[in-house]
Amino acid sequence: MQHGDARCPLAPILRDMVNERLRRAMHQAGLDIQSLADASEVSAKTVERWIGGKTPYPRTRYRVAAILQEDESYLWPEAVNSAALTGAELVATYPRRGDVPRHLWTELLRGAHRDIDLLAYAGLFLTEEHPDWLPILAAKVEQGARVRLLLGDQAGTQLAARDREYKIGGGVSGRVSAVLAHYRQRMPPSVQIRLHDTPLYNSIYRFDDEMIVNTHAYGVLAAFTPVMRLRRVDGAYFNTYVESYERVWASARPADPVPEDR
Question: What is the CATH number of the domain that holds 67?
Fold first, then answer.
């Protein structure tokens, strides 16, 4: 379709200073001017002005970027400073893991399509407290998402050390056994599970460009320690935990294969 073609929805507003990044993002999202206007709760004329080079107000920029699943800094690089972006990555904090909204875990899982990563010693709460966790995760694997699970190595030293720290008499290792049984019974054979023997300073739960980080404090169960919710913007927070995850993944050993005939 040519820009001069009357059928082109962007033809009326093409100018010398067109926001090409915004135009392409709209095209990739399958949205025309009116569709984006409706989703953004603005007029079609306002969207035309954005494409023509006008920059939306900050609150509207964030909303449009979320609709188009693009970074705000990509759509309007001249309007976003790096200091603001760094703060924008920290979406929310919670004093305890139990304060994280219950629906958020499966909501983020449903929204992920590429990378789903878990790093914990067990993370048993996900399989036992969220009935939808395992079926959604299995469906994501079948749909082509890369799912990597890093759990504590029962043959290593770190689980025993954590068990002594918590004073629960073998409970940490038992929780790993329980969660491994859940995943082995319900996950497709293509799921990737490794066992790590590293000191765990944070548990990491990644869903594409969203992440939940459960910090750890000596002698305090993870359910009662602070949690950060991150969203990748410029990577100042997010990339630190991605790098940490990759280092642990590289040092971990493969778990026993998931049985294929269940």
Answer: 1.10.260.40
